Amino acid sequence: MFEARLVQSSILKKVLEAIKELLNEATFDCSDSGIQLQAMDNSHVSLVSLNLRSDGFDKYRCDRNLSMGINLASMSKIMKCAGNDDVLTMKAQDNADLVTFMFESQNQEKVMDYEMKLMNLDQEHLGIPETDYSCVIKLPSQEFARIVRDLSQFGESVVISCTKEGIKFSAGGDIGNANIKLAQTSNVDKDEDAVTIEMQEPVSLTFACRYLNSFAKATPLSPQVQLSMSADVPLVVEYKIGDIGHIRYYLAPKIEDEDN
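Structure tokens predicted for DNA sliding clamp PCNA (260 residues):
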């Protein structure tokens, strides 16, 4: 038996919004430690890794490891039926081909049940190597979303350069060139407004805008985003999800002089 209860269904709604543009379907791996999802996007360029720890749920039970293949568009339709303040419970039997979503209003006067068929998906588990990154940058997630959106007006790629002075985002195209520089903040009232840079050595890498824009769909999950970069390895864009877990996106840098 698998059962997971969240007092705020809005968390799962936001998680779905953050991944459904990149993934059509994915396997939710449930174990006694929590729920994990790992999948390449539809074009096999980026990787999405989601971790929701069991201790972050209000109630969590998983007697046997369970892999639920889920069509994310279908799940999104069901989640849209829930109010943001509804209590959400997900349930499935051990060998189930169905998962049940139950939404209860706060006053418990309204209870909704939705059953969704599960899919059999081929799983490819990709080992993500532990890497010590040359640069780890933290900045407000809304700022990152705005920068990526603004620069994608100029070109299909963004160059992210990190030095001791700060972090620079650049793009260029037919209209012209755009550069946005952020210096490390010295004092801010709220931690979430800070820009911090931990740097071993300077890095400058090029990434496809459209993926960064998709990653920025996770902005509502967290006030801060962390970018981890090293030469020749994928960028990691990480959003914390409250006290329950995180979502990480991995994107390989573009090789220079590449046409596609």
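The two ends are 47 Å apart (CA to CA).
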